[in-house]
Model the fold of this input.
Amino acid sequence: MRLAITTLLFFYCYNITQAQQAPNITTYLFNQLSFNPAYAGSKGYLTSNLLHRSQWIGWNDANSKPPTNQLLTLHSPIGNSKRVGLGLNLQNYRVGATNTTAINLAYAYRITLPIGVLSAGLQSGIVAWNGNWNKLTFQDGIQNDPAFSEGSLNKTFTNFGAGIYLESKKYYVGLSYPRLLHLDISSSEDYIANSNVYAQLYRQMYFMAGGVIPIFSEQMIFKPSLLLRKVGTLGKGNPQQPIVATPTSIDLDVSLFFLQTFWLGTSYRTTLESVFGNTTSHDSMNIWAAFYLNKGVRIGMGYDFSLTALKNFNSGSLEIMVGYDFNYNISNVQSPRYF
Done:
């Protein structure tokens, strides 16, 4: 084992608890464009959201830093009919010695059905991946491990995504693949070609659903929601490549919206640790809140309490977000948007 124990812990725990090769977001209800291009323009006006997430606060190790994630989403309907939506999604996340930056442009088209508004979306973008092995400590020296012999690695890819999204005044449901292609991030093509070891960013699948239940007219709204994440289980067609069978991550969320101003929510995150979901792993309990200020300004935060063995080494994970709805006049809204 050549990597330092702390580095192994980062890669192992991060991939297991996240059940994907992209970070979890507790306040995902405000950032659905980040995983479903069909969401673009669904608000009916130009809206933006900026988020920063610090994973595992209090992690104390001189040789490694906990993961961080930054996310910016911006989307709007186009034209008087508002059938077309456009969006921009910019993400950056750092895990151990690796850093991934992705920028995507989304296009969505909506049609009205008797049961709601159905939107189909496509996105295309660029993924820049960097692995700086000089930040790692090697037990036997980096020269003895061909996989890390280059010292550092930079790769840039083009990728595509697609999704569908159905919403009404009372519910929403969606399915998306924000990353349709597997991306090879092998550090040495010759070394990987002669072994059964593959380093990739895999295809991702998301399923989302939720609803709203008025409690006291529109003065208090109860909103349950679900988000499921899964990494694709099929490889690139190489018979030597093993099947990917990473856990499926599920967020179960309930929240209350008070006086059309203040959201307060809690969620439970778990993972199904087998392909058929026979066993589960309790990942975290989370709380979040969002407050709508005057003239379209929105602020919020989320906090995760770890339920895994990592709780002995950190005090949780924190998200801070700020959003702005352009040309949005609250007094003119006849039908508030909850999704």
